[in-house]
Design goal:
Strand content: 5-15%
GO molecular function: oxidoreductase activity
Radius of gyration: 17 Å
CATH topology: Rossmann fold
Order of helices and strands: EHEHEHEHEHEHHE
Structural class: alpha/beta
Family: Belongs to the short-chain dehydrogenases/reductases (SDR) family.
Shape: globular
Keywords: Oxidoreductase
Helix content: 40-55%
Number of helices: 7
CATH architecture: 3-Layer(aba) Sandwich
Pfam families: adh_short_C2 (PF13561)
Protein name: Short-chain dehydrogenase/reductase SDR
Length: 258
Amino acid sequence: MVDRPTGTGRFAGRTAIVTGASRGIGLAVAQRLVDDGARVVVTGRQQPALDEAVAQLGGSALALGVAGRADDPEHQVDTVTRTIDTFGRIDFLVNNTGINPVYGPLMDLDLAAARKVVDVNCLAAVAWLQQVHRAWLGEHGGAVVNVASVAGLRPAPGIALYGASKAMLIHLTEELAVELGPDIRVNAVAPAVVKTRFATALYEGREEQVAADYPLGRLGVPTDIAGVVAFLLSPDAGWITGQTVAVDGGLLLAGGLV
């Protein structure tokens, strides 16, 4: 273990792995955790983008970037090993990585692409937790947040397979919370449309029209999600597990998605 300075704040001395965090929601979550005193390890596909993220997060004293595919077992093992070697512990896991390469009705679904969606959005989340559990959480406890979607809570035409994968992730969150309590808490967040590159196709060129369906009158931004994730990891949420928090500007209340 390399001796690193620790910050101040509610997560001082704690370390988190945040997957899919070179930009967007993942990077905002990592930034919020660092702001609250944690050290973070961020993952993504491209090392240059991760290097930029690490610099933004405060440099090597506070952050480490490890590139690879989220569903690659070797990448998972390497990331967990490097986290322990660098920061000495893993208190939190945020499964943020998600893909959606298919759009359209289920009857036209490319099944090979669908299998990839399930691998990345669901099974990889379990695999990451297995690795972190073996390395640290199983003995020391901690907290996990899975980033799902409101599409996992209501039918979402056009992105049905993506929604189904997020529904599976929500159910896995509940199962894991039961299995891993009392020492490990597992929760999820379910964002609606957040202004990121990943979601651009859902609002680009018509943001005002899309936002009109939201009682709060706007689309989400990454920091909206980061604040809720930080809360669920924190002691303030110490009696909350197995829950999925919709962070949606009121969209579901207004009957959105269907």
